Amino acid sequence: MAETRAKIAELDPVWARITQEAEAAVAAEPLLGGMVHVSVLHHATIEGALAFRIAMKLANGEMSDQILREICDKAYASDPWLARAARADIRATFERDPACHRFLQPLLYFKGFQAIQCQRVAHWLWGQGRQDLAFFIQMRTSEVFGVDIHPAAKIGQGIMLDHAHSIVIGETAVVGNDVSILHSVTLGGTGKEDEDRHPKISDGVLIGAGAKILGNIRIGAGSRIAAGSVVLEEVPPCKTVAGVPAKIVGDAGCDQPSRDMDQKLTGCNCSG
């Protein structure tokens, strides 16, 4: 057993840590033993655990957990990037969220992490031409987690949706790698135009709670969007914007504010 665990830890350190934390959680709180075992410890890989968790959360009277599990299993087998991105999301959440003390927490309890994994499966289905099934997963994700991300939206890895409630991301939106988004953020359009109409968020961006970024505009790498801002114009890299409508108020203060998570405007060379 020790040799097997050592091999797992070498091949997949994130999954090895999750299983160790799951065993400790069961020992500390036996009443959660059934849930932790069926969600984590009964699975040999993180792909299996993710597929099971998504299926159990999204299943309803219209779509059974068995069917959803089969869909997720096929997605993870077809595209290894899905699980790699999930591992990066877990690390991102652990490193950036002071309320996250274990790798186990996002997988079991954090709806932002879970919603992103659901969208990744929906996006895979979208790429397979199975749009109606992708829309079903979008609908159930919105109903269960309060997060509405179009299946066609392109989402990078190392993403943290902090609290996540009421996040909306439109069809042609693109979110780069290592982006942190707080609750009530909208990446939306500005009217009824078709085609490419949603924001493009570059790597390392921090988007504060309640911010609205509207239209086919680019938010430069390493930028900060202050809480409550309404962004209607492009933002250069490594800048902080705030206000309604948002204006540049200074530099971002670091290369990747999404990791620093500092949302205060002090120290950003504010110009007004």
UniProtKB/TrEMBL annotation:
<keyword id="KW-0677">Repeat</keyword>
<keyword id="KW-0012">Acyltransferase</keyword>
<dbReference type="GO" id="GO:0006535">
    <property type="term" value="P:cysteine biosynthetic process from serine"/>
</dbReference>
<dbReference type="InterPro" id="IPR005881">
    <property type="entry name" value="Ser_O-AcTrfase"/>
</dbReference>
<keyword id="KW-0028">Amino-acid biosynthesis</keyword>
<comment type="similarity">
    <text>Belongs to the transferase hexapeptide repeat family.</text>
</comment>
<dbReference type="GO" id="GO:0009001">
    <property type="term" value="F:serine O-acetyltransferase activity"/>
</dbReference>
<feature type="domain" description="Serine acetyltransferase N-terminal">
    <location>
        <begin position="14"/>
        <end position="118"/>
    </location>
</feature>
<dbReference type="InterPro" id="IPR011004">
    <property type="entry name" value="Trimer_LpxA-like_sf"/>
</dbReference>
<dbReference type="InterPro" id="IPR045304">
    <property type="entry name" value="LbH_SAT"/>
</dbReference>
<comment type="pathway">
    <text>Amino-acid biosynthesis; L-cysteine biosynthesis; L-cysteine from L-serine: step 1/2.</text>
</comment>
<dbReference type="GO" id="GO:0005737">
    <property type="term" value="C:cytoplasm"/>
</dbReference>
<dbReference type="InterPro" id="IPR001451">
    <property type="entry name" value="Hexapep"/>
</dbReference>
<dbReference type="InterPro" id="IPR053376">
    <property type="entry name" value="Serine_acetyltransferase"/>
</dbReference>
<protein>
    <recommendedName>
        <fullName>Serine acetyltransferase</fullName>
        <ecNumber>2.3.1.30</ecNumber>
    </recommendedName>
</protein>
<dbReference type="InterPro" id="IPR018357">
    <property type="entry name" value="Hexapep_transf_CS"/>
</dbReference>
<dbReference type="Pfam" id="PF06426">
    <property type="entry name" value="SATase_N"/>
</dbReference>
<dbReference type="InterPro" id="IPR042122">
    <property type="entry name" value="Ser_AcTrfase_N_sf"/>
</dbReference>
<dbReference type="InterPro" id="IPR010493">
    <property type="entry name" value="Ser_AcTrfase_N"/>
</dbReference>
<keyword id="KW-0808">Transferase</keyword>
<dbReference type="Pfam" id="PF00132">
    <property type="entry name" value="Hexapep"/>
</dbReference>
